[in-house]
## 1
Amino acid sequence: MVPDLAAEPPRAKSYEDRIGRIERCGIEHIPESERRSAPRNLFMILFGGSLTFSVIIIGWFPIAFGLGFWPAAAAVVAGSAAGAAMLAPMGLMGPRTGTNNPVSSGAFFGVAGRIVGSLLEATASLAFAALSIWTGGDALAGALAAFFDIEDATVPRLAAYAVLSVIVTLVSVLGHANMVAAQRFMIPTAGLCLLVGIFVYAPGFDVSYPGTGEYAFGSAAATWVVSALLCASTVASYGAYAGDWTRHISGKLHTDGSIMRALLFGGLFGMGGPFMWGTFTAAALFGSAKGGADGSYVLDLVEATPIWFVPALIYLGLASGTAQAVINTYGTGLDTSAIIPRLSRVQATLIACGLAAVLVYVGQFSAAVADTVSVFLQLLACFSIPWIVIVAIGHRRRRGFYDPDALQVFNRGERGGIYWFRHGFNVTGMAVWGLATCGGLLFASNAWYVGPGAALAGNADLGFLVAGSAAAVLYPLAVRLFPEPPEVLGPPG
C-alpha cells in the first residue's frame, strides 16, 4: 500500500468522472475519495486501444524489414516484454500524486522543469492521434471503396477522417470514464474481428515463411535487433501516459503490485497481441505475393480481403481507430492544460483535437507532413526514454515519496515548495536528461539524417537505447555527486 507521507491539497471543487458526463478534473490533485478507477482498467485501455491499425502495423515492420515469420515473431515477443518491463513502474506515481506523470515529474526535474515532460507527452500524443486517424481513415475508406466498388477513394478517405475526428473529440472531451468504457467495448468487438481475421488470412500464411532474404539493416541479426527495439520503444512510450489513467486509482485501496501487473500484462499481451496479428497478416501477404515492403500495409490488407469480411475492416477502421486516437487526444488535452494552466481540461482537449484534425488533413495533401510525423516519432524516443528512465529511478530512490501540494505550485502560479530547487528547475535532472538525449541522437537513424554512431552500426536506429542507457548510468552518479535537498527524500526510515 502507499504510505501516507504527505497531506493532500485542499479540495477545490467536484471531481465527477462518470460515463455520459464530462470529466471535471484536469491536472490538479484528485482527492483519494474521488478516485473510482481500478488497475484492471489499465489493461483494458492498453488492450482495447491497441486493436487498431496504427498499433497493429508495428508488427508488419519486422516482415517488411526482411525477416522470416519465426524471427519476426520472436522480435515482437522480446521487444514487447522489454517495453512492458519499462512501462510497468510508470504507473506508480499517479496514485501517490493524484495527477499525471509529467506534473509528477516535477519531483525530479523541478516544478517548472516538468514542462519537459508535458511537452514530450503533448507532442507525442498529437502525432500518435494523427497517425491513428490516418490509418483508421485509410482502412475505413479502402474498405468502403472495395465494398461499393469505388475507383477513387479520396472523398471516402476525407469523409472518414472527419467522422473519426468528430467521434474522437466527443469521447476525449467527455473524459476518463468514457474513454475506459470505449476501450472495454473494443475488446469483445474489435477483438472478435481480429480473431476471425486469423482464419480469413490463414490460407495465404506459411508458418515457415523465410523472409525476403534482403535485410533492411544489412544482416538478419541487426534487423532482428531493430525490430525488437521498435516494439519495445512503442510499448515503453506509453509510460508518459500511464499517469493520465492511474491518477484515478486510489493508492490506499490498490497495491503497487496490482498496478504494475496490469501495465505489464497490458504491454506484453494487450499491445504485443495486436503486434503479432500484424506480423501474422504481413507474413500472409508477403508469402502470397499480395503485399510488399514498398506498398501500404492497410491497403494491401484490404485488397486481399474477401468481400464478406470487408465490414469487419470498416469497423476496425472506424471504431478501433477512434479508440486509440482518444487515448492520445485525452493525454494531449491534459498536457496542454499543464503547459497553459489557465485552460481547463475541456478547453485544452478541444484545442488538441482541433490540432490533430488539422494535422491529418494537411498530411493528406502533403506527403512531406506525413513523412515528418513519422521521423518525429522516431526521434521522440531519444527524448522520452531517458525521461522515463530518470523518473523511474527517481521514484525508486525516493521510496515513492511525493508532496502532492508542492507539485501543484507551478499550476497555481506560485513559487516555493520542496520541488522549487533553483528557480523551479532541478539542474541535476535536467542536465542528465539533456546529455542522455544528445548521446542518443548521435546513434539515431532516420530519413532526415544518420548519426555517426548509427553509421558504425549499419545505420540501425539505436538512439533511444543509447539515450536510455546513458540516463540509467548518469542519473545515479549525478545525484551522488550533487546530493538533493534532504526534504525531497521524505521522512527518514
## 2
Amino acid sequence: MTSTDTPLGTAGGTDRRRWFALAIVMTAAFMDLVDVTIVNIAIPSIQRESGASFSQIQWITAGYALAFAAGLITGGRLGDIHGRKRIFLVGIGGFTLASALCGLAVNPEMLVASRFLQGGMAALMVPQVLSIVHATFPAHERGKVFGLFGAVVGLGAVSGPLLGALLTEWNLFGWEWRSIFLINLPVGIAGLILGSRFITESKAPRALKLDLVGVALVTLGLLMLLYPLIRGRELGWPVWGYVSMAGALVVLAALVAYERRKSARDGSPLVELSLFRVKSFAAGIAVQTVFGVALGVFFLVWTLYMQFGLGWSPLKAGLTGVPFSIAVSVAAGMSVQQLVPRFGRKVLQAGALVMAAGVLLYLWESGHYGLGIAPWQMALPLVVMGTGMGLIVAPLTDAILSEVPREHSGSASGLLNTVQQMGNALGLGLVSVVFFGTIGDRLRPDQVGPAFADAFRNSLGWVAAVLGVIFLLMFALPKRPVQHVEGEQGATERKEPVLVS
C-alpha cells in the first residue's frame, strides 16, 4: 500500500495499523538514542579487552557522530524521493547489520569502521521516524504522538548509560562490552519484519531527484565544522581546526546559493529553503540548535562529575539519572496534550526557566554537599530539570513540523535532527573550555575529586546561561494555539490546536 503523503485515518478511518507503525518507528528512535550514549559507559571495558589506543577509542564514539550528523539531511530527502518506509527499512536493516559487526569486531579498526557504518545507517533510519508520523497521522492526533516522542527522548537520554552499565556488569554469555551492540539484533530484526507489514509507504507527491552536488556540499560543510569540534581538545585545538570551521561557513553559504538555483531550475533541491519561510520552522530550528548545545554540555560533564569527580560506579551513576528520565517522560506527555492547547508558547518558555532553575539548584547542592553528595540529594534538581526539559522537547518538535508541507517532511525532519546534532557537537566543543579548561593538567589523586566538582559547577553556570538564551529565542516561536477546521473531501486538517503566529 502506498500513500503520496495522505495519512491513514484522516477521513475518519479507524485503521489501527498506524499505531503499530508508531510503536515500530519509536522503538527505532529509542534504539538510536540509546546507542549514542551506551558506548561511553563501556569504554573502559572496550579499551581493556580490545587493546584500543586512546585515538581509536575517540573514533569509536566520534565516528558514529560524524557519519550520523553528515548523513541526516540526505537520509531525509531520500525518504521523500524513494519512499519513507523503504528507506526506513533499509536504515534499520543496515543499523542491525552494523551492530552485529560492532559486536563481532576482531580488532579496534573493525570496530571503528563498523561504528561509521552504524552512524550512516542511523542517518537513513532516524529522519524517517518523524516523516512517517507526519505523513501517517492526521493533525488532530499528532499532539498525542509528539507527546509520546518526547517521552521516548527522555527515556533514551538516561537509559543508554544505565543499560550500558547493566550489560557490562552482567557480562552476558561472557560477551563483556559486545553485548551493548548485540542487544540491537533482536530489536532490529523485529523492527524490520513488523515494519514491512505495518508501516504504510509515503513519498513526495511529485517526482524529485537526489541533488548530488547538494549532498557533497552539505556533507563537506558538516564534516569541516564537526570534525575539529569533536577532535579539537584531544589535538590541542590546532590552527587548522579553526580554519576548517571558518571554511565550513563558506561551504554552507555556497550550499545555500546553489540550492536556490537548483530549486528555481528543477524544484529538486536537497535542502528545501522554502521551509525557512515558515516562521514556526525557522524559529524552532534556531531554538533546537541552542537547546542541543545545552544538552551536549550537561550530559557529558554530568557523567564525568559522577564517575571521575565522585568516584561512582557506572551503575550507580546510571541509576541516579532515573528520576530525571521519569520527569522528562511525564512532563512531555502533559505539555502537548494539556498545557500547550491552553497556554501555547508560554509552556516552552516556562520549560526553559524551570530547567534553568533545576540547573541552578544542582549547582548550589553540589557546592553545599561537596564530594559527600548522595544520589537521593540529587533527585530534586534532576526532577526539576527533567520537568523543564519535558515541557520543551515534545511541543518544540510539534511546533517546528506542524506547518511543514507533507511533501517536504523528510527534508524538514533531516534538518531538525541535523541541527540538534550540530548543537550537541558545539556543546561538546564548549565542554573543552568550560569544563576541562578549569582542570589542571597534572593532578594528584587527592586533587581529582575537588577539581572535577569545581569544573562541574562552572559548567552548570554556562548551561543556565544558555537556557536563558533559549528562553529569549522562544519569543520568535508562534505564540497562540488556534483550532483548524475540516478540509476538503472530509479530511481533517489540524483539529488539534497547534502553535501559530
